[in-house]
Specification:
By secondary structure, this protein is mainly beta. The chain is built from five helices and 20 strands. The protein has a single domain, classed as 2,3-Dihydroxybiphenyl 1,2-Dioxygenase, domain 1 (Roll). A hairpin with an 8-residue loop joins strand 3 and strand 4. The two termini are 35 Å apart.
Length: 314
Amino acid sequence: MERLRVSDLAYIRLQAPDLDKAEEFLVDFGLVRAERTRDRLYMRGSDAAPFLHVTHRGEPRFLGTGWYAPGGDALKAATALPSATGIETVDELGGGQRVRLTDPDGFKVELVQGQHRVEPLAVEETLLNFGWAGLRRAGTEQRFPRRPSRVKRIAHYVLTTPQVVRAIAWYREALGLVCSDDIYVDDKANIVGSFNRCDRGADYVDHHVFFCRTGPLAGLNHISFEVQDIDDVMLGHEHLVAKGYRHMWGVGRHYLGSQIFDYWCDPWGRVHEHWTDSDRLNHTEPPRLRTREEAFKVQWGPRAPAIFHSYATP
């Protein structure tokens, strides 16, 4: 049977004791409520996914992630993986079918297929006068209302683990992810992190959908969401500052992946990233091996605070 290759990240599941507080932060971050029950909160972006972010009621925890399995026999292939459940009908927003796995650190990985798409939310385009398009909004002034960012989609997440090589191997084998950049310290065999992307053949995808890095505790380092453009990043930054949320890092431009980024903590310390403008790669791009210093530098903006490199919320 053909090996499973996920097509994209679908959603993340967290747990929090206060759904009102969780929703307030996520709306300020730029997500939109899709559905809320007594014990779950589903949030969406402006693209067609029914939800991107699920908060379950309970003590603060990172529960796991959902991934899109392509059509055909992908779910059947997934049932042969160690720790896999059988194929289930999904009884929640979006519907479809699902197979559930457990990664080496005990976090849940859900493979979903047949989820219903929804109508995208209307978002007006920002017209900019620059470069070869210097008259795109000739005669029109540019004025932005104060508002949150407008999240489009979930893009990637970062897992911290003390067993980094084992975790990288598991995600590549189970989900069919491929290496964009492996990170080493001193000896090239001493891998301390890895940026991985989806394998969609000739189709171009984000530089990474999953980054795994070493740290003393297993947990979530951060969740990342694409926003509309750089004005969205900056408007969201000012909105979150005004609301008094804890800022982790930014605004800057990464070296690997090239995203313009900004990182914020929710009320329980889980880091949520806004970004825009990612590098996009396909199967013609070979894997790279990078030093830690090269991998974690920025093209402009502040360097990451020391806490960020080993940050993990269980």
